């Protein structure tokens, strides 16, 4: 039970890190990933 709680906490922290990304970075990542498909 304790282990599950820790897992959830780390998951939330990762999500927060992702949300804290500046928008240009996200757009740049999207552009790079889309250009890789061509």
Please provide a written account of the structure.
- The chain has 38 residues and is an all-alpha fold.
- The chain has one domain.
- It is built from two helices and no strands.
Backbone shape: elongated
Instruction: Work out the number of β strands.
Output: 0
The helix-strand sequence is HH
- Roughly how many Å apart are the termini? 46 Å
How many domains make up the coordinates? 1
User: Can you count the helices?
Assistant: 2
Share of β-strand residues: under 5%
Structural class by sheet pairing and helices: mainly alpha
Average pLDDT, rounded to a whole number, is 76
Largest sheet: none
Instruction: State the helical fraction.
Output: over 70%
Task: Pick out the low-confidence regions.
Answer: none
Radius of gyration: 15 Å
Topology:
Layout lengths: L1 H18 L3 H15 L1
What's the quick description here?
This protein has 38 residues and is mainly alpha-helical.
Keywords:
elongated, 38 residues, mainly alpha, 2 helices
